[in-house]
Amino acid sequence: MATSRDDMQKLTFRKFKDGDHEWDSWHDAIFKGDTSHKCPTYVHRTPPCQGSCPSGEDIRGWLQIVRGMEKPPKDVSWQEYAFRRSTSANPFPSMMGRVCPAPCEDGCNRNEVEDFVGINAIEQFIGDTAFNEGYKFEAPALTSTKKVAIIGGGPAGMSAAYHLRRRGIASCVFDDHAELGGMMFYGIPGYRTPREVLRHEIKRIVEMGDIEVRLNTRVGKDVTVESLEKEFGAILWSIGCKSGRGLPVEGWDGTPNCVSGVAFLEAFNKGDLKVTADRVVCVGGGDTSIDVVSVARRLGKISSINAKDRPEEVIGGYTAHDAAMVAAREGATVTLTALFPQDKMTAAEHEVHDALHEGVTILNEVMPIALVKDASGRATALRMAKCTLDKGRPVKIEGTEFDIECDLVVSAIGQGGDLTGLDAFNNGKGLIDADKFYQVPNKPGHFAAGDIIRPHLLTTAIGQASIAAESIEHYLKQEEQAKRPKVDKHHFKLLDKLRETGLSPEAFNADAGDQRGTSDAKYAVHNYEDRSMAEIIPHTRLFLGHFGYTPRHKREEYGPSATEVLSHFEERRRNLPEVEAIAEAKRCMSCGLCFECDNCVIYCPQDAIYRVNKKEYTTGRYVATDYNKCIGCHICSDVCPTGYIDMALGE
Length: 651
What we know:
- This protein is an alpha/beta fold and 651 residues long.
- Helices cover 26% and strands 15% of the residues.
- It folds into 3 domains: 26-134 and 491-649, no CATH class; 147-242 and 417-476, FAD/NAD(P)-binding domain; 245-413, FAD/NAD(P)-binding domain (3-Layer(bba) Sandwich), CATH 3.50.50.60.
- It contains 20 helices and 21 strands.
- The strands form 6 sheets. The protein has a 5-stranded parallel sheet, sandwiched between helices.
- Helix 4 (78-86) crosses helix 7 and helix 8 crosses helix 16.
- The relative contact order is 0.17.
């Protein structure tokens, strides 16, 4: 990945880097050697950004809208149109634009030219614009008399409620907390997921109607599974993973000042934990551990603290800190340890850099081996050793042991589900099994989505909820589950776009003399093939020489330094201004779909390719081919930047 014009790969207008690129005779090359029976056809494929997105968003689609290429319907602003396209998959654009680690950007084909497209930043722009403008979700009429119970109101549960409601199905969300949001609310600090915006995105879903909410209600304790089976047509388990794993060292359980990262963050996010300990050591390396140490640096410590006010007492739920403690805060010493080298840590790279900037000490390639305790049984140090990894397992390097003095030890090495009272669903690992349709095996009418299947990203939970909602609809209608496509995403559909613009193909009528196989009939979309559900387009299909170096527009960083971090709970990154969001969207290479560059029209030696009539134009239908003129020279395919033109017709 290049980050400057000097670093950029020196691409040329040759598509191929190796081999002959000059002909002895241009006449022979064009009119003899490059004459073939193959003619261009327009092939829609999925871009790798979308292929890498666990939510399956039509990323290229909403980037095209933001950049001004795909036009909205009448009476709809492009901002709202981009919001609707984005939320066809993900109802939390503001949240995901802030906290998603953006695997889409890792997959972006622009990495082969220079820096990736700032997809995450543009998604936040779309979400925050929707928040400021008050955009609402549309809710169709109910199509089912049956209601779905959703257990857990986190990202998976609320996304499922949203997608079910879009399908005309009512639901009831059960959650054992006082507020909805799950890990977005109780597991991520508010300076990363601003509570006003998060509550708004949740409220927007509930306001669709026919989504009942029952808070402070634990299924398996307050409500039985059997009663839910009688009341509801289907049940979705989206309870997340709220039980943190302790460190694999002797004496962890029962040591009062040894806590889990999940419990630490929940106590903070509920407002109970106002200060932490003098010396905090967190073991992890993922996003949860980064949140723990970043929060600990913000909370600080107080010099004189009563035993009953120690942070572990608050985290255990025995007490809550008084707000007056805030005035006496001082900086805490915070250390994060990880098994992996820094560049291999699973936490987002920018979050690691922010933690270092805020004064967190990070020790890499070390493992915990023992707790050092005082006479009262409290941990006074965590004994560590340098380590190597053998097939993913840490191996201690003998003779490298050392102690880190501590007042609080936090384990953030993973988490599992709390299935108390739900033993019949436990797969033995504290999780719930599900098949590819997100059905719970041998439990008809039961489905699962999110971390309770396997802890992963918030965006993964959202994507699973979308598929689970579709599976639930089939179940309620007593239909067989439909085979999932190879590329299982929310795809752009040309036919839907044609309908939206009033250009739907006419119905085929054999009685009126319609004949199949003609090239100008109005009952078909000609020389177009949709392979988006089967193929992700690689960079090797693109004409990369078309793209020059354009610096990425980045969100401004307002992260506090080590001397400023105490009591700093403001958001660290600012949203892109509209003009920069548009400019950044224009960096999208539109992989797998025409972006109207005119290369094929300009370079066709036969003038066989032409722009379609403006009255017939829509996204994906910008150019067409006159096959009476085409000689199959494949120049149009070679100069197509997006890989949209294949020499396939006639194969």
